[in-house]
Amino acid sequence: MTLYNDHFQNHRRYSLPKAQLIIADIPYNTGTNAYGSSPQWYVDGKIANGQSNVAGKQFFDTDKDFRISEFMHFTSRMLKKEPKETGTAGCMIVFCAFDQQMELIEQGKKYGFNRYINLVFRKNFSPQVLKANMRIVGNAEYGVLLYREKLPKFNNNGRMVFNVMDWPRDTVTPKVHPTQKPVRLLEQLIEIFTDPGEVVVDPCAGSGVTLLAAQNLGRRGFGFEIKKEFVRSYEEKIAPAVSTQFDLWGRNGVVS
Question: DSSP letters of 167-228?
Answer without folding.
Answer: ----SSS---STTPPPHHHHHHHHHHH--TT-EEEETT-TT-HHHHHHHHTT-EEEEE---H
